[in-house]
Amino acid sequence: MVKAKVLIIEDDPDQVFLYSTKFKMEGYEVLAATDGLSGIKLAKEKQPDIILLDIVMADVDGVTVLRELKKLNATKKIPVVIFTNLDKKELINEARKLGAAEIFIKTDFVPSAVVAKVAKILTK
Amino acid sequence: MSFLKFLPLISCFFVLTLGIFVLAKKSPRAVKIIFFLFCLVVSVWLFGTFMMFRTTQDYLAIFWDRFIYAGVVFVPALMHHFSLLITRRKNQRLLLYTNYSLAFVFLFLSQTRYFVDGLFYYAWGVHTKAQFFHHLFLFYFFFFIFFLFYNVYTFYKSKANALEKAQSKYVLIAFGLLIGIGAFAYLPAYGISIFPFSFISGVLFTVVLSYAILRHRFMDIKIAIKHGSIYVSSIITTVILTFLFWLFLNKLFHLSDIGIAISSLIFALIIFSPLSKFIEKFANKHLFYSLYNYQETINHLTNKLTTIINLDQIIDLVVDTIKNAMQLDRSGVLLIDESKTPFQYQIAKVVGFNKKNGISLVQDNFLTRHLAVTQKLLVREELDFLSEQTKSPSDKQSFLTLKEHMARIEASLCLPLISNNKLTGIIVLGGKISGDAYTKEDLDLLAILANQAAIAIDNARLYKQVQDFNLNLQAKVEEQTKEITQKAKRLEKLLKMRSEFLDIASHQLRTPISVINSTLSMMREGDFDKMSKEEQNQMLEGVYLKGLKLRDIITDILSASEMDTAEFKIADFQKMSMEMMLEDVIKDKSPEAEKRGLKLIYQKPIAPLPPINISARYFEQALTNLIDNAIKYTPAGSIEVSANIKNNNLIVSIKDSGIGIPKDDLPKLFKKFIRAKNARQVYTDGSGLGLFIIKQIVENHPGGKVWVESKENKGSTFYIQLPII
To answer: Which of A23, B313, B381, B533 could pair with A28 as two cysteines, CB 3.0-4.6 Å apart?
Structure first.
């Protein structure tokens, strides 16, 4: 039984592997994109229940992706969780203003904690 | 009406007095003689008229009438001649000779019966009848009279200066009145009974011209009216008025002689005092215009000076007011500028003087010394006297030279400005426009003014100094503030850069750590055991590589930090063989290249390389970094390393057949944390510090340079250049 569909947009393959493995273990369906543009496309097509979005990415950064996601009708209702290692107040504030559901620093949260957060958001 | 018979006599008296007075003045010139003659013939007319009115005998009347014409015939010629002299006309000579000739002709004719003959009997008196030649005479008379007016008028319009214009005006008025009114005297010769009021014109003529003489120096006559003369005029006027009063009493009342006499005396005493005050005031206002008006003005100025603090205003006030109030032709102020050595004069303001002339006056310092010592004003006229008085022969000469100099630039008066017993400047004045000399009152007044002006100028200069100092101070403060603001801005920028560096550095460090930690946490929670063998291996591999990555990033960050400071200086230079270093590094890197399927080639130099001064540790780091980059960014192909000598420089090049660098990214390439766009796609975890570190290392080698040539998708070649000393 699949709990929910999770889309991970993250450009570091090791991290993608880590989180997908964990989420899959916990019974989630995992979709992954290694850059922002394909992530948006995937979101539009597959309509995940929640999106995990990295900020520091190769071509398009996370904030732009967030803005785009919240603009498109197809995706604006999907809750977006920002997870990053960039601890910059301005970015965090902007993400919050744009409507991110949650923002957290990767090093502060182990994968199981991430899963717990996602579950909480999905039950709301 | 017998009094009116005296009118011609009184008129005659006035005119003759004026003529004699003019003649009596020093340096009689042609103009004065002619003027006197004119007055003489007019007096003849007036006197003759007087006598004629008084006679009771017909033949006497005719005699006196002819007597009159003997004078009158010369009026046109003399007027004409007079006008030529005062307008300084050179032409009309022929006309003048004609004029005189005709005058003599008419003189002869006037004594004949064909001029005037017979008598008209009027209520007021008699007059001869005009005959044939009289008519001719009238034409002649008015024709030639015209020339005076013409000449003076044209002179007034064109050639006259201000003073002469004023004089001409009065000449026209005086002669106009004389002829205009006096000509009515001809009418009785034609049977027209006009009472001879026209003789009053003589008085008017005299009054107007006297005014012109007094006020406008007409005919160059200088009159210094002393106060005594006011007294005298008061007496005369009182006498005249009392006389009239006496006549009046006599006519109207029939009192005893004593009664009339006493009344007249009382009258005289009553009117004398107010009359003399009136005359004094009148004279002050209109004749001594200079004295009355400017006294007040100068007093006013003196007071005002104490209230003004602006130097330019003070100077303007002093120069303009003195000049205008005293009606001078020139005035100016020179100030001493102590800040220059030797001290220099500056022209504060001059009006009417040429600036050069003003400075030339003080050029030889003689005037300065003199004024500084005497601290009193200097009048040009007294320089002769001073020259005589002084014992020193050089001073004698200097005084005379100064006098000439002053005369040349038309300066009459020098007032020293003394402050604190020192000479701080000079007020230089020209002469009065009216040509009058400076009176004692003038000089006293000016001395006081100079005193006040000196103080005021001193204050103003001090004030200006303070103002300037303030401005200067302000400018300095602004400069310092600017410096500080600039420093603060730079500091701010540095802090911003530093915080950015920390942000990125911390991000770079956190990334591998988060993976390591996450993996370990999953292991702790038992997830690891649930994974397949493949998954486990992949996870362990990822963690291991992240650990290495962490090490690399830490190294890079530390290097970059160290090199980023101004104090970073490589010290361990040693002469060594580049070939050996290159070979070492390549040997090191070959396994990695092989693993990726890349060919790492070392192109031996054509000729043996001389040993070169480098830091072993750092240079090796740079080379290794470059080769690392080449390996990282070359998916397939080869990397060529070579070293050669060119133009006294050693050039090492590392050429790869990798992804190349986009043109846009080339300029910023060697800066901190910059990674080309296409680099990220191939190797996402680069710290962005590699090239920055290489650049710091190379440029810390004296004369070292590093640069790149690249084309996207074709490959890049990095060059390092070091000079061979």
So the answer is: A23
